[in-house]
Design brief:
Order of helices and strands: HHHHHHHHHHHHHHHHHHHHH
Distance between the termini: 75 Å
Number of strands: 0
Largest sheet: none
Shape: globular
Radius of gyration: 22 Å
Mean pLDDT: 82
Low-confidence stretches: 6-12, 423-437
Strand content: under 5%
Helix content: over 70%
Number of helices: 21
Structural class: mainly alpha
């Protein structure tokens, strides 16, 4: 049953049932995250699979209705709110780590620009074309838009994304984080995510606007909000977080200011007609990184840890709308088409642009494999599309499976193309003879 229907039927749950559902979600996420690490997959993949398994894809097939007992429908509205809080905090971390300063040479910038634009444009075009072809198969009763423009624009944006946080985790585990290939792929993923979020914001504006004036108003309000963040909020944060101020309270003040700021910015974007995740991402991007790293470097990490604790709830709420058992023949065809188009568009775009800008065949292949990773960021975008009503639950399920498949294949394919670098143990520094004596 789709999440929005379950939410509408839910009643206020006792505290015990809500806490039990939360305990089940966190326990399943922890166990599957450990199993994912054992098979050389990012821990977040285990959490995503756990959220899907707690939904109707598996539990609806078992006798005794275990889904209702483990995660009662009455708890879903509260889990939904908790998942949105974790999502907002997570997007703050994505924006906070958005940095392209690691590639400063003109050659590297040209390569990043070429690879990023090509591996966004090609998947976008293929995804939009696929949406046009699949539109007759979509459940019109679940769509909130007329025509094919909204689904086409959204599917194009969803195909263009690369999971920046999951990609960073894979590179760190493979010893490629400081490798030129790793730096290039991270920079390309950051640019691609930025472009994809801009495209998605435009899609939200187009879908939610009911005419020319509401569309213009949403665009103006969004531009004003971005200008306020850059011109007023960022300098204000630098001034407020100055350690020389009389009210300087160390990490506690920084923590409170950042959390309040990201929540208020998320509310502002919701009021402007966009999704809360856009405000959280923008606030994290404009936050004064240098001032925060100098005065309270542990605060962004604490916020990130809080979001990681709540993200399994988001995966479970997402899994409630994923029903693999109800795909049918058309759903399986949808899933196969989505996976093929996603892999072909992203890999071909990245590989071709990398080769044209001087990369070797092996480097271009590894870059294409890395940028095809979608993971968590894809789920965030898909939930936005489902709430907008530009896709139905069957296409949503197919896209979630695509995100899981493309992320699971990244590690094994990268191991074949680019084996992990050997970890050389650091030798202790030799003390001067006078100090040693």
């Amino acid at each position: 049953m789709p999440t929005h229907r379950v939410l509408a039927q839910a009643a206020a749950p006792p505290t015990g049932r809500f806490l039990l559902a939360l305990a089940v979600i966190l326990a399943v996420a922890f166990v599957l995250a450990r199993l994912a690490r054992r098979v050389r997959q990012p821990a977040v993949m285990g959490e995503i699979v756990g959220g899907i398994l707690l939904g109707p894809s598996l539990l609806s097939l078992l006798p005794g209705d275990p889904q209702t007992k483990l995660v009662p429908p009455s708890t879903l509205p509260y889990l939904q709110l908790l998942s949105q809080l974790g999502l907002v905090l997570f997007m703050f971390g994505v924006g906070y780590h958005f940095d392209l300063g690691q590639l400063r040479t003109p050659t590297a910038r040209r390569q990043v620009a070429a690879v990023s634009l090509t591996s966004v444009a090609l998947p976008f075009g293929l995804g939009a074309g696929l949406a046009y072809g699949l539109h007759p198969w979509l459940s019109q009763s679940e769509l909130k838009t007329d025509g094919r423009l909204g689904p086409a624009l959204f599917l194009g944006a969803a195909m263009s994304i690369t999971a920046f946080p999951v990609l960073a985790r894979i590179l760190a585990e493979r010893g490629l984080y400081k490798d030129p290939l790793g730096a290039l792929s991270l920079a390309c993923a950051a640019v691609q995510d930025f472009l994809a979020w801009c495209i998605l914001a435009a899609v939200v504006v187009v879908v939610r606007a009911s005419g020319p004036w509401p569309l213009a108003r949403m665009v103006i309000e969004s531009a004003l909000l971005l200008a306020v963040l850059v011109l007023l909020v960022r300098p204000g944060l630098v001034w407020v977080l100055d350690p020389a101020r009389p009210w300087a309270g160390g990490p506690a003040l920084t923590h409170a200011v950042l959390v309040v700021g990201v929540l208020l910015t998320a509310v502002a974007t919701e009021e402007a007609g966009l999704h809360a995740v856009f405000g959280a991402f923008a606030f994290g991007a404009v936050a004064p990184h240098r001032r925060i790293d100098e005065s309270a470097p542990q605060v962004p990490e604490r916020i990130e840890q809080t979001s990681l604790l709540l993200l399994p709830v988001f995966f479970t709420v997402t899994g409630m709308s994923v029903d693999v058992s109800g795909l049918g023949v058309r759903g399986l065809v949808m899933t196969a088409a989505v996976v093929v188009v996603a892999c072909a568009g992203k890999f071909t775009g990245a590989f071709g642009a990398a080769r044209l800008t001087g990369a070797t065949p092996r480097e271009a292949t590894a870059l294409g494999v890395l940028l095809n990773c979608r993971g968590l960021t894809e789920l965030v975008i898909l939930n936005v599309g489902l709430s907008l009503g530009v896709i139905d639950t069957r296409l949503f399920t197919a896209m979630v499976l695509m995100a899981v498949v493309t992320t699971l294949m990244t590690g094994p394919l990268l191991h074949r193309v680019r084996p992990p670098l050997p970890q050389v143990p650091e030798r202790p520094a030799r003390r001067p003879a006078r100090e040693a004596g």
